[in-house]
Design goal:
Length: 715
């Protein structure tokens, strides 16, 4: 996928002069009154008063805040509709129960009385218009917390759990005393992520204490500890010879990847390309079989291994369980040391937690690490046994929004599977909030049928005794994408220091070269392609920073002349945007706190005309769904988006402008700058657009730079 100099992309320079006032939105200025019954404020007040008294009836809640839920009417998810109600009551939401249910707290009886009086006696028309979008207000009762816990305690036999605490550190001692002394539960660890508190407990029978846990005001939910798992179907084959390893020139700088796995065999030929080892497990608890195979997949190039250097991170023990809190702390230590020099991390592991409509703690851990350290994780979608009747949706943390999640497709044609068809073991999307997951797929193995039985047909790599080995799984599709990511980052690091552009290039080119606008639940944007040397396309790369309250407008982007016939454009336009939004696990149904809305268009008579808008985003939920408005409202917040449109005989300007408009959740108070990467491609299948623009490069030199090492760049 790395571009040759014959058809390399062009860089669109970023400048602070591109910041402009946000355009005026034609929303009518006032909140419209919702359909349906008018809200009954006396009913709402009675609900929260009863809930307040219920929680205060327990001595351990005496001095604690009480948490309540604000239930929106269907179709009232838009933040503008609830704005006036929240500002008038000074209610600050702190989390969500569902897409339509937000959580807020009451610190004391005086605050309860104040909000009750506003709801009952306010005469403000704007307030009542906003108030009409509220379906109900009630206390967050134990049955709500049970639903948030999302597991069946009657069937669960595990002993380790995480207690999620409402976002507050003021009452830390009270909650620990309640868990340790009143319930006599053993606290083994405490996890803090972005000021969110999770207490790990151990109990042989959660049923004995579960109901009482739900009555504590500060406890939001209880979830089982995920198991981090690896799947192998490993078989030994012929011994390899040493000449399968390419020699390494120690005077050269190569692409780098950190392999987060079980370690590489000490006697492996692959050690030639190792740049270091970080160990988080004891020698007696190592089994490098999986890690060695993954490393071989990462370094494989035709029939040899090499050309990528790797950091060997031994983090998955052979016998002892690996918990997510230990994994998170180890990753923090690793990234503190290596994140500035290594930007790509292959993580071919998963958990036993099926992804649901709400984002999980393991996914949030990965997203937090990637945003804090500005790195890119390549992770697997997860495996399933094809002959078992189980839920085949992706497993956590595969819904991580900042990672590239990889599914598997068949690498060969068998009597059971076609080439590029989804592997029978690969898990499918969508991710939480209907986000596109997996992002793409690569070769991880296949199946054939022999004597009426399914038989795995694996992909090849190198084994722990330097033998030719065969295995199958999404774990082995993932390193092919990590390899490509490392090569792309290495090639373009002179211009782009953040891996945002690397992720954007992989997804953009995968979608563009698969020549389809269809999103697949198994392969996302498609099967990863390795060749983007197409002269039929002109591609622009742009990286910048969005600030809240201002839009970015990049003018005078040239459209290749050969796309126009008789003054009208024919061809395809594709735009990909990638950015690292802040995430908040307290709002697991909202999660992404900021949105960047990109569009491409031009001005005519000082009026903006858009030709590529968010309505052209691939994977947008279909309008025939009953809940499509709610689903589309949630879908637009995903921080990786591809917009695509085919134009035929369209009269447009020959120079276009790119707009990026930032928005944020109404309950998100931070004004954080957002770094983004954008790629724009113009394609005509019968024209050499690259040479068309290259001939006119001098006309656009003020805005363009070829993204090649041969040219001075904006990096």
């Amino acid at each position: 996928m790395a571009s040759s100099n014959n058809s390399c992309p062009f860089i669109l320079r970023f400048s602070k002069s591109m910041y402009k006032p946000n355009p005026k939105m034609g929303r009518g200025g006032k909140t419209r009154i919702a359909d349906g019954d008018k809200p009954n404020p006396y009913h709402f007040v009675n609900n929260i008063d009863k809930g307040y008294k219920f929680y205060k009836s327990f001595n351990y809640n005496k001095d604690l805040p009480i948490f309540n839920k604000l239930i929106l009417k269907q179709g009232s998810l838009s933040k503008s509709l609830r704005y006036q109600f929240l500002t008038s009551t000074q209610i600050k939401t702190i989390g969500s129960v569902s897409p339509e249910q937000l959580i807020f707290k009451l610190d004391n009886k005086q605050e309860l009385d104040r909000i009750s009086n506003i709801m009952r006696f306010s005469r403000n028309k704007s307030f009542h218009a906003s108030f009409s979008h509220i379906q109900d207000i009630d206390s967050l009762l134990p049955e709500d917390k049970i639903r948030l816990s999302s597991f069946d305690i009657s069937e669960y036999t595990g002993e380790n759990f995480y207690i999620s605490i409402f976002q507050t550190t003021k009452y830390y001692n009270q909650i620990c005393n309640f868990i340790g002394y009143q319930l006599n539960l053993r606290q083994s660890d405490i996890i803090t992520i972005n000021d969110n508190l999770f207490i790990k407990i151990k109990t042989k029978d959660i049923k004995l204490v579960f109901d009482k846990l739900m009555t504590h005001s500060l406890i939001k939910c209880v979830t089982p500890e995920p198991e981090i798992v690896l799947h192998e179907q490993y078989a030994r084959h012929n011994d390899l010879t040493l000449d399968c390893i390419l020699p390494r020139d120690y005077n050269l700088e190569y692409p780098k990847v950190a392999i987060i796995d079980s370690g590489i065999s000490d006697s492996s030929y692959l050690k030639e390309w190792e740049i270091g080892t970080e160990t988080f497990i004891n020698d007696s608890d190592k089994n490098p079989r999986h890690g060695t195979f993954v490393c071989g997949r990462l370094l494989s190039t035709e029939d040899q291994f090499g050309e990528i250097t790797f950091l060997n991170v031994e983090i998955i023990p052979a016998k002892s369980p690996l918990t997510i809190d230990v994994f998170y702390k180890n990753m923090q230590n690793l990234l503190e040391k290596h994140s500035k020099s290594i930007k790509i991390y292959n993580i071919s592991l998963g958990t036993n937690l099926i992804v649901t409509d709400q984002f999980s703690l393991p996914a949030h851990m990965l997203d937090t690490l990637q945003k804090e350290y500005d790195v890119l994780f390549i992770i697997s979608a997860g495996n399933v046994q094809p002959d078992q009747d189980t839920d085949t949706r992706i497993t956590s943390p595969a819904e991580s929004v900042h990672s590239i999640t990889v599914g598997s497709v068949s690498h060969i044609e068998t009597n059971m599977q076609k080439l590029h068809s989804p592997s029978l073991f690969t898990r499918h999307g969508p991710g939480s909030a209907s986000f596109i997951k997996p992002d793409l797929s690569s070769y991880g193995g296949s199946h054939e049928k022999k004597f009426g039985k399914l038989k795995p047909v694996g992909v090849f790599s190198i084994g722990i005794r330097n033998e030719l080995a065969e295995d199958s799984g999404t774990s082995h599709a993932t390193p092919l994408v990590a390899s490509m990511a490392a090569k792309i980052y290495h090639q373009y690091s002179h211009a782009f220091k953040s891996p945002n552009m690397t992720k954007a290039l992989i997804i953009h080119n995968t979608c563009l070269l698969n020549c389809t606008n269809k999103i697949d639940d198994f392969s996302g944007y498609g099967v990863m392609q390795t060749d983007d040397n197409s002269s039929h396309s002109v591609t622009y790369l742009h990286e910048g920073t969005a600030i809240h309250g201002r839009m970015v407008e990049l003018p005078e982007i040239p459209v290749p002349d050969d796309m126009f016939e008789n003054g009208k454009l024919n061809g395809h336009i594709q735009l990909t945007i990638v950015y690292k939004t802040p995430t908040d696990i307290n709002y697991p149904h909202y999660y992404c706190m900021c949105n960047l809305e990109a569009s491409l268009g031009y001005y005519k008579n000082d009026k903006w005309t858009a030709i590529l808008t968010p309505k052209d985003t691939l994977g947008m939920p279909d309008s025939f769904r009953n809940d499509y408005k709610t689903t589309q409202e949630r879908f637009k917040w995903q921080p990786t988006k591809v917009m695509s449109r085919y134009l035929k005989n369209k009269e447009i300007a020959k120079k276009l402008s790119l707009r990026i408009i930032p928005t944020k959740r109404d309950f998100y108070t931070e004004n954080e700058n957002i770094n983004y990467a954008i790629i724009i491609s113009f394609t005509h299948r019968e024209k050499n657009l690259y040479q068309c623009l290259r001939k006119r490069y001098s006309d656009f030199e003020y805005i363009l730079e070829p993204a090649s090492n041969m040219w001075k760049t904006c990096g």
